[in-house]
């Protein structure tokens, strides 16, 4: 039986995408070859790559000022690439909004390349809200934030206002709703939450912010080199890009991000409604900051945690255990999560 998979990442993708991807592993587009044995420079794969980039541009409405790259190394490599490509070698300074484990890791990496100012933090209450009303100095090389906090279940509902270059880690909410890409210097996302398999990292970057640091950047970390090479400075993650392309086609067929956002809102509302009305459960996140992608919740009686997980397991529900730093439970309800699966979880909660 196919399980209801609430994993935070790598995570669920549409069943149709899995079907097509498995076919391409055996015989890619009737070429008699597997997708993963052809050259990344073959016209067949270049067409896949071009289509993936074109779909990202179309679905996210990426302006002509920005480039789209598929790199490797995950969001974790972007923590340092953003810093090394944007922080000035003399007096480099960057502002970070610290909303949890991932922003904290990004901030730590940036410290290797210049001064980091933590302009706001939610650490005082274990990151259960999004800081508001803070000031961002205007003399920084860039401002970094994490748009959705996968572990703590919080999400920025507004883009932070700043005149500085804005950088966002959107690993866990990219393609979940429309975004005004023109406001950003860099958007990056590990594919494995809402886009495709682990191995590809999507980077959207405004070209004119590059080349101003005065430092020598190693080739593999230099965005300008990857732009020039159209993500093929080295062998790109061909399978991950292909599956991402299939998922982007699927998103487009769904009606794009407006339609997808509406479904995501409905799914999240159903689940939060159950948590708020079921006397056995609570959610400690500030209501206005609740993530529509990662829903964290606790049993009021934590001694029943194992019993609840067993009941979930019985109903074919997998991966709802919370992150070790938060405890309790986490249901990740990315784009591909059907409303029927959310309902299956709610049914278990109602009976519990
Ligand atoms: C999963 C995740 C990461 C880590 O991504 P990797 O691809 O494993 O490096 C970083 N940031 C956020 C917000 C995430 O959800």
TrEMBL record:
The keyword Cytoplasm applies. It comes from Wenyingzhuangia fucanilytica. One of its GO terms (molecular function) is O-phospho-L-serine:2-oxoglutarate aminotransferase activity. Pathway: Amino-acid biosynthesis; L-serine biosynthesis; L-serine from 3-phospho-D-glycerate: step 2/3; Cofactor biosynthesis; pyridoxine 5'-phosphate biosynthesis; pyridoxine 5'-phosphate from D-erythrose 4-phosphate: step 3/5. This is Phosphoserine aminotransferase. It is an enzyme of class 2 (transferase). GO terms for biological process: L-serine biosynthetic process; pyridoxine biosynthetic process. SUPFAM superfamilies: PLP-dependent transferases. One of its GO terms (cellular component) is cytoplasm. The gene is serC. Its main location: cytoplasm. The modification N6-(pyridoxal phosphate)lysine is found at residue 193. Residues 5-345 form the Aminotransferase class V domain. Pyridoxal 5'-phosphate binds at residues 75-76, 102, 150, 169, 192, 234-235. Its cofactor is pyridoxal 5'-phosphate. It is found in: Cytoplasm. It comes from the Bacteria. Its EC number is 2.6.1.52. L-glutamate binds at residue 41. Catalyzes the reversible conversion of 3-phosphohydroxypyruvate to phosphoserine and of 3-hydroxy-2-oxo-4-phosphonooxybutanoate to phosphohydroxythreonine. Keywords: Amino-acid biosynthesis, Aminotransferase, Cytoplasm, Pyridoxal phosphate, Pyridoxine biosynthesis, Serine biosynthesis, Transferase. The keyword DNA-binding does not apply. Belongs to the class-V pyridoxal-phosphate-dependent aminotransferase family. SerC subfamily. Binds 1 pyridoxal phosphate per subunit. Homodimer. It catalyses: 4-(phosphooxy)-L-threonine + 2-oxoglutarate = (R)-3-hydroxy-2-oxo-4-phosphooxybutanoate + L-glutamate; O-phospho-L-serine + 2-oxoglutarate = 3-phosphooxypyruvate + L-glutamate.
């Amino acid at each position: 039986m196919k399980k209801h998979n609430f994993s935070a990442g790598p995570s669920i993708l549409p069943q149709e995408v899995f079907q097509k991807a498995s076919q391409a592993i055996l015989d890619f587009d009737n070429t008699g070859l597997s997708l993963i044995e052809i050259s990344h420079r073959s016209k067949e794969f270049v067409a896949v790559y071009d289509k993936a980039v074109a779909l990202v541009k179309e679905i996210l409405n990426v302006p002509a000022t920005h480039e789209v790259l598929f790199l490797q190394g995950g969001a974790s490599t972007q923590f340092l690439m953003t810093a090394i490509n944007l922080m000035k070698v003399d007096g480099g300074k960057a502002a970070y909004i610290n909303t949890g484990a991932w922003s904290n890791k990004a901030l730590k990496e940036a410290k290797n390349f210049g001064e980091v100012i933590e302009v706001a933090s939610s650490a005082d209450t274990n990151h259960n809200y999004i800081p508001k009303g803070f000031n961002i100095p205007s003399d920084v090389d860039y401002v970094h934030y994490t748009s959705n906090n996968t572990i703590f279940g919080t999400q920025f509902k507004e883009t932070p206002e700043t005149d500085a270059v804005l950088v966002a880690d959107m690993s866990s909410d990219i393609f979940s709703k429309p975004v005004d890409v023109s406001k950003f210097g860099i958007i990056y996302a590990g594919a494995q939450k809402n886009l495709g398999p682990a191995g590809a990292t999507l980077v959207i970057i405004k070209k004119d912010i590059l080349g101003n640091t005065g430092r020598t950047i190693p080739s593999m970390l230099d965005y300008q080199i990857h732009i020039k090479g159209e993500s093929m400075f080295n062998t790109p993650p061909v399978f991950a890009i292909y599956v991402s392309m299939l998922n982007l086609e699927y998103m487009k067929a769904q009606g794009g991000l407006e339609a997808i956002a509406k479904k995501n809102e409905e799914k999240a509302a159903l689940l939060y409604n159950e948590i708020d009305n079921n006397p056995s459960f609570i959610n400690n996140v500030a209501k206005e900051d609740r993530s529509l992608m990662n829903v964290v919740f606790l049993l009021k009686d934590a001694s029943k945690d194992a019993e609840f997980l067993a009941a979930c397991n019985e109903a074919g529900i997998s991966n709802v255990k919370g992150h070790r730093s938060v405890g309790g439970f986490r249901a990740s309800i990315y784009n591909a999560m059907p409303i029927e699966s959310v309902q299956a979880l709610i049914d278990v909660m109602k009976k519990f």
